[in-house]
Amino acid sequence: MGGRLGFIGQRLVKAVFVILGIIVLNFLLIRLAPGDPALVLAGEAGAADPKFLADLRREFGLDQPVWRQLLIYMQGILSFDLGFSYRQKQPILDLIMARLPQTVLLTGTALTFAIVVGVSLGAMAARHVGSWWDSAITTLALLVYAMPQFWLGLMLVLLFSVQLGWLPTFGMNTINSGFTGLDHALDVGRHLILPSLTLGLFFMAVYARLTRASMLEVADLDFVRTGRAKGLSEGRIQRRYILRNALLPVVTYAGLQAGYLVGGSILIETVFAWPGIGRLAFEAVLVRDYNLLLGIFIVASVLVIAFNLLTDILYTVVDPRIEMGT
Amino acid sequence: MASRRQVLSSAAGLLAGAAIGMPRMARAQQKRGGVLTAILNPEPPLLVLGLNQQAPTQLVAGKIYQGLLRYDFDLKPLPSLAKSWTVSPDGLTYTFTLQEGVKWHDGAPFTADDVVFSCTKFLPEVHPRARASFDRCESITAPDKGTVVFKLKEVFEPFLYAFLPAGAPMMPKHIYDGTDFRANPKNATPIGTGPFKFKEWVRGSHITLVRNDEYWKPGRPFLDGVTYRVIPDAAARALAIETGQVDLAQGNDVEAFDVQRLAALPHVELHKKGYETVAPISWIEINHRTAPFSDKRFRQAMMHAIDRDFIVKNIFFGLGRPASGPINTATRFHDAKSVKRYPYDTKKAEALLNEMGLKPGAGGVRARIKMMVLPYGEVWVRQAEYVKQALRRVGIDVTLESNDAGGWVKRIGDWDYETSFDFVSQFMDPAMGVARTYISSNIRRGVPFTNTMGYVNKRVDELFEQAPKQTDPAKAQAMYSELQAILTEDVPVVWLTELEFPVLINKKFRNVNIDANGPNSEFDEAYLA
To answer: Do the chains contact at A89 and B229, CB–CB below 8 Å?
Structure first.
């Protein structure tokens, strides 16, 4: 147990340095992009004069040397202040926290769907390898995997929204509906179906193929043969012997995906006008909202590091042979 | 000094007052109720019109804030917060009489003090265009609560065009006076005098405006509210109109190739008017500082080599008009007769290039140039691809350069380009939006939408200086006609199209698009049929 705590402690210390590195690197990288927030605002307004640009740069602190801007920013971070958005005139943390839950809802739903359906389909294909089922599942997985997401999304919209009129094409809820409680949840659910399906289908394909391949590999191992020789039922062999041992790569992949969970999907959030963090980041890049972008990077990196740590701990649960080295 | 006729009198304005946005439908059909849902893209940074005049800000904030005047499709000034106005015979004093009983959304009365505060303190501090307008004033005073007097330092005939809601929105003195305007915490909950009040902004999703029950125009507005939905994807926006999930699309919301298809739907109506206040012209901006661009024959050759009709028909799908010169046909003082024409003629283009000594080399190439593509949507990429092909036909080899918006503005402002696509708004009068890109006093490195080409012509400077000082419209017209002749001879930029933006409206809503400010307007006459 002491090993586990020491391991976690060491990882946390490393994480602090990683995050510091991320801040400094991104701070400098963003400023390499041509143009600054004042110019973008002037460009969008279609009018500017030197006073306008100078006032905005002074307001944003961009008239200071870069090292000084970095110093001021780091001071803010140390007091847990991510600063203000140049453009939206709001505290960065408020902006991020307003969007993060939506993204987690979307990606969380999509990944849950992908893992549950993907692993089930993969297991089914592996169990009946070479059969009609196997061919159907692997073909479907390949097809979905190869399809561009935006196209798949549009096709789903055309079918379910335009042709059948069952589901809304964009947004997260019906505005001015006055829905509360369960009605509100159902309304969000209806809006969630198409974007999470579009996002989830792609990952479902990955999990299905991963599970199938991994299970087939495990199925040839000695302990499986031993299990069969002991006269265990085929269902038990598949679930307890093969699937459980085949899950390691799936857990690894899901752990990596967790970063995605908080980073959001710019594409899906754009196509379905889902008010998530991916779009917020994308728009921040376009308008050179330095503080907002850095804030998103920091929050995302903290969460990704946390998820990776969690994955490492999960390994020991899935496979007790793995120990945490310090 | 010769006697001058009074240019604009109040009587017309007074009478027109009753007729602003006068419904074309029978009045009996107008009724209270209904919420209009419109597309918003991209999301505006904030909704305080005095602080930000970007297109999406204008759309939403145009319902919240108002100017002293509004303008009909032919740019005739109409009353808004000003009930009437007079201009002194010497053209130096503008006196506005304000509407009575106007209240800010928080209940405070709107008075002449607010106008004086807006035009002397707030706007000159934060609004580049308003700063230019009100710098012309010797004094702005309020002799009583209902009257404002602007005294100009010298005659500026287009002064009445400075009062568009986005050009000079009226800002509440009681909220802003003595504060840091940009940092005022009330910026999050905008307070105006308009027919709709701010209710809610869920970033990334929607903005809700609700009816202002205390609106100063009796019985208005008809609608209970206006909701703006943020929809970042063009295909999703088209679908939203098609399925009736939203009622209004405007500006660049719908890709040009989708407009006619949507307009043909039984529930959708297409308007091409509503952008006369901006009336932008798109052009190829040329950096005159190096050869061959410094030679006007090269620029003239480019004018001849590009088929502007083709662009309008095939790239904008019939939206807009081929541009013939610097002043848009929708802008004041346009003179079709004075412009030098450059019909599509590759032979003439080649002759001009030959005359310059630019003979075809290997592969028929006479010159290699770089051209920046506009980073504002698909249609600009298509236009760039067409122009590349068209110029290649006369031996000009174009390398297209892509930037995102930040990079593009930076390079244009810093003169770090050879040629670039661009479009610039004209704001109703040449003195407002045209002069700035051609006069040599406005060559300012680092500032976009100035004379970034580096074009210098003393006579052009002189005419742009003198024309707005004429109180006699005929004299001003003569000067602007001369200007159009000179500029179309010099070709400082290669004009392409007078842009028109489609306004797609669900037919169940009426009187939505009724003046030159189109979808940016108040919507106080709009109703659900």
So the answer is: no
Q: Is B477 exposed, middle or buried (0-12, 13-18, 19+ CB in 10 A)?
A: middle
Task: Return the HEC string of B118-163.
Answer: HHHHHHHHHCHHHHHHHCCEEEEEEEECCEEEEEECCCCHHHHHHC
Query: According to the model, what pLDDT value does residue B71 have?
Result: 96
Nearest to B239 among A50, A52, A157 (CB): A157
Contact A35 B405 (CB under 8 A): yes
| Block residue for tokens 């707030």 | B122
Distance CA B422, CA B451 (A): 12
Q: Do B410 and A35 touch (CB under 8 A)?
A: yes
Rounded to whole angstroms, the Cα distance separating B172 from A110 reads 48
Q: Mind listing the pLDDT tens digit of every residue in chain A (326 residues)?
A: 456 677 778 878 888 888 889 889 988 888 887 888 888 877 766 667 788 888 888 888 888 888 888 988 888 888 888 888 888 888 899 999 999 899 989 988 999 999 999 999 999 998 888 899 999 999 999 999 898 888 888 889 889 988 888 998 888 888 877 788 888 899 999 999 999 999 899 889 999 999 999 988 888 888 888 888 888 888 888 888 888 888 888 888 887 777 776 766 888 898 899 999 988 988 888 888 888 989 998 888 888 888 787 777 777 777 777 765 54
Q: What is the biggest distance separating any 2 CA atoms in chain B, rounded to whole angstroms?
A: 76
d(CA B468, CA B480): 9
Residue type, A241: Y
Which of A44, A275, A286 lies at the smallest CB-CB distance from B203?
A275
Report long-range pairs for B468-471 (Cβ below 8 Å, ≥24 apart).
Answer: B468/B155, B468/B156, B468/B157, B468/B158, B468/B429, B468/B430, B468/B431, B469/B154, B469/B155, B469/B156, B469/B157, B470/B155, B470/B157, B471/B4, B471/B5, B471/B7, B471/B90, B471/B91, B471/B155, B471/B157
Q: What is the pLDDT of residues B245-280, one digit of tens each?
A: 999 999 989 998 899 999 999 999 999 999 999 999
Q: Which residues contact B244 (CB under 8 A, 6 or more apart)?
A: B267, B506
For residue A306, the distance in angstroms to the closest alpha carbon of chain B comes to 27
Nearest to A43 among B42, B240, B448 (CB): B448
Q: Residue A82: what pLDDT? A: 86
How many beta-carbon pairs under 8 angstroms link A with B?
Answer: 166
Query: Edge-to-edge strands of the sheet including B396-401?
Result: B321-322, B494-498, B281-286, B419-424, B367-372, B396-401
Pseudo-torsion of CA B47, B50, B55, B56, nearest 10°? 0
Amino acid at B207: I
* DSSP secondary structure letter of residue B285: E
Helix (H) or strand (E) holding B398: strand B396-401
**Are A273 and B231 within 8 A, CB to CB?**
yes
**Separation between Cα atoms, residue B287 and residue B453, nearest integer Å:** 4
> A209 CA to chain B: closest CA distance, Å?
32
Q: Looking at beta carbons, which residues of chain B come within 8 Å of A90?
A: 188
Which two tokens mark B455?
């074009």
* B406 to A33: CB separation less than 8 angstroms, yes or no: yes
CA distance A192 to B65: 36
The pairing of beta strand B196-202 with beta strand B69-71: unpaired
With a threshold of 0.90, tell me whether the complex ipTM lies above it: no
Residues in chain A within 8 Å Cβ distance of B236: 157, 169-170, 271-273
Nearest chain B residue to A171 by CA distance is B205
Residues of A in contact with B162 (CB under 8 A): none
Nearest by CB: B229 against A36, A39, A175: A175
Give chain A's length: 326
Q: Residue B447 and residue A59: Cβ atoms within 8 Å?
A: no
